[in-house]
C-alpha cells in the first residue's frame, strides 16, 4: 500500500503537518496561472501521475474533494475504468449555474461525473465516471438543486448503514471518504461541519465492508478542516487517520 499525500486545499498549499499521515509520496504542483481552475487542474494532473505509478490500491490523503478526479484519472492510466463510492456529509453535486456559495468543492462529485469538462476533467485527462457507476453515501446536508438532481439523475444515494457489496457499483471502484461525513462532535474543526452524522466507527465499518469486496482500486480521504488550534484536535485527527489507514491496509 502506497500512501500519497496531496497537501492542498483546492490550489492552496496546506501547512506542514495539517494531514498527519506517513506518506511515501508527497504531491507538489506549483502554478502561477491567474485562472484558479487551471491551478486546480495542475494539482489533479500531478495526482493522476502519482496514482498511476503507485501500484496496487494506493491511499491518497488530501485537503479537499476535488482531488478525487485526479485519483480516478490516475487509476484510469493503469487501464481500469472505475466507478466511485462517495462518502460525504454534503452532496457535492452543484454546477456553476446552481452553486450559491461559489465554493469549488461543492461541485466535486458532479465534476467527476462529467459536468464542466472544459474547466476540470478535460484539463488533466479524466474520463468522467458514468453517473450510474457513482454511489453517494450519507450527504445529509443537501441543497434543493442537488436534491432535484438526485431525484432525476442516475447517481444512487444510500445511508452508511446500507453500504455493502450489494449497493456498491459492480467491478472496480474508487472509495472516496470526506472526513466531514463523520459527525462534527467527534471530529472538530471541519470547514463545513454537518451535524447529525454517523460515528467514525460506523464509517470505518462501512469502508471495511467495501474493502472486503476486493473491488476497491484506490482510496481517497479528503480532510477539509481548518488547521488544528489545539493539541486535542490534532490528536483526534491523527488517531482517526491512523485507524483508517490501518483498516485499509
UniProtKB/TrEMBL annotation:
Keywords: Hydrolase, Manganese, Metal-binding. PROSITE patterns: ARGINASE_2. GO terms for cellular component: cytoplasm. Coiled coil: none annotated. GO terms for molecular function: arginase activity; manganese ion binding. The keyword Manganese applies. InterPro entries: Ureohydrolase (IPR006035), Ureohydrolase_dom_sf (IPR023696). The keyword Manganese applies. It comes from the Bacteria. Belongs to the arginase family. This is Arginase family protein. It comes from Actinoplanes aureus.
Amino acid at each position: 500500500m502506497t500512501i500519497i499525500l496531496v497537501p492542498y486545499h483546492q490550489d492552496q498549499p496546506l501547512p506542514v503537518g495539517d494531514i498527519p499521515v506517513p506518506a511515501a509520496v508527497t504531491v507538489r504542483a506549483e502554478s502561477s496561472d491567474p485562472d484558479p481552475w487551471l491551478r486546480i487542474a495542475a494539482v489533479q494532473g500531478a495526482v493522476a501521475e502519482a496514482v498511476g505509478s503507485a501500484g496496487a490500491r494506493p491511499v491518497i490523503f488530501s485537503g479537499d474533494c476535488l482531488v478525487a478526479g485526479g485519483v480516478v484519472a490516475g487509476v484510469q492510466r493503469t487501464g481500469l475504468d472505475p466507478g466511485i463510492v462517495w462518502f460525504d456529509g454534503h452532496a457535492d453535486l452543484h454546477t456553476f449555474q446552481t452553486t450559491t456559495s461559489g465554493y469549488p468543492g461543492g461541485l466535486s462529485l458532479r465534476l467527476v461525473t462529467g459536468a464542466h469538462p472544459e474547466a476540470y476533467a478535460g484539463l488533466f485527462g479524466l474520463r468522467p465516471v458514468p453517473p450510474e457507476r457513482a454511489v453517494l453515501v450519507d450527504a445529509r446536508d443537501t441543497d434543493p438543486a442537488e436534491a432535484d438532481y438526485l431525484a432525476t439523475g442516475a447517481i444512487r444515494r444510500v445511508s452508511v448503514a446500507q453500504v455493502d457489496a450489494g449497493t456498491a457499483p459492480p467491478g472496480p471502484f474508487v472509495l472516496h471518504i470526506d472526513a466531514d461525513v463523520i459527525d462534527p462532535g467527534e471530529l472538530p474543526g471541519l470547514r463545513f461541519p454537518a451535524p447529525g452524522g454517523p460515528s467514525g466507527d460506523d464509517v470505518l465499518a462501512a469502508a471495511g465492508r467495501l474493502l472486503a469486496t476486493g473491488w476497491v482500486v484506490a482510496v481517497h480521504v479528503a480532510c477539509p478542516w481548518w488547521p488544528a488550534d489545539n493539541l486535542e484536535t490534532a490528536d483526534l485527527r491523527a488517531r482517526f487517520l491512523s485507524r483508517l489507514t490501518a483498516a485499509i491496509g
